[in-house]
Structures are given as structure tokens and as C-alpha cells.
Design brief:
The longest helix is centred in the first third of the chain and has 22 residues, at 5-26. It contains one helix and twelve strands. It has a single domain (29-167), classed as Porin (Beta Barrel). It is globular. The chain is mainly β. A hairpin with a 2-residue loop joins strand 5 and strand 6. The protein has one helix at residues 5-26; strands at 36-37, 39-48, 56-63, 66-70, 74-85, 88-102, 106-107, 110-111, 113-124, 129-139, 143-152, 157-167. Residues 1-29 form the signal peptide.
Amino acid sequence: MNPSPKKRLLFQLYALSWCLFLFSNTATAQEFPKGWVFPLNLGQGAVTAFNHTPDLYLGTLSFSPQYTLVPGRLRAGITAGGAYTNKRIYGIGGPQLALLLTDKPKILSSTVLNVQLVAEQLWGTKEQRLAGGGLAVEVGQLAVFSIKALRDYHLNAWWIAGSVGVNLFGKKPKENPFE
């Protein structure tokens, strides 16, 4: 006997809400809490001049430790890593700022994700000078998804990339979440 589509949908909604409830009890109640985060990001995209020249593949691996300057609002940190483009590997590094835009949706007293506006100034080992930013979505203070556009103002090109990251040293939830 097959359950009706309506019963199946109700069961799936019930199971999803139960999973969200369990997940929200393990998540911390505040986004951008005081302290450090250590995201490791793997990205890919293109280097382009937006003209007749061909676009080049871009692959990046970066480590961006950040400290919360204003809890619930602003983080600052540094980015260090490598980039592969034009059949070469380059080092990149520089400062980074992340401004919390929103921390919706809320499930009970916790948020599931937050959206950040990210700004970076990076210097490369082969005269790259990059400035720009983008949007990042942090899910459960565990994973980070971002899309960025950086202008190489020395070599007259754009670096456009998306990345996936993981926060390496997750924070333990408080013993008593009501404190």
C-alpha cells in the first residue's frame, strides 16, 4: 500500500523540521561571536580582461583566519594562500574584512546561516595587486560558500571566482544555551 502524496509530503516536512530542530540545538545562538574563526577555502573561476583576449582558468586555495572586532557585526583578518592561473602557481596574501548583512532564517533561538559582505586587498608574488570583494554565506559556522570579484589594478584584469570552505577549528556549543 503506497501512502498518498499528501501524507508523504507531510512526513517529509515533519522529518525536515525535526532535523532543523536538532541542528539548531547544536548551533550557537549568536552569529559572529567574539573570538577567532579559521576558514580554509578552495575556489575556482576565471581571470579576464573583458575584451578579445581569452579568459584564463583560476584555481585558489586560501587560509583566512579572522577575529571578531564587533560581535554580531564585523570581522577582520588576513588571507594567505596560493593561486593557479596562466599555467603558474602564485602566492597571494593580504587583509580581509567581513560585515554581517543578515543572519536569517532563525530556527527557535538559533540561526542556520549568515550572509556577509567581504572586502579584500591582496598582493601576489608576480606583481598582482588585487582589490575587491563579494558575498559569503556561512552555514552553521561550519561551511562557507562565497563568490568574489577582485580587480587586479596593476595587470589590468579581473579575478572572478566562487569558493567552498570549511571552518577548521569549530567552536563547541555552550553547555547551557540559556546563559
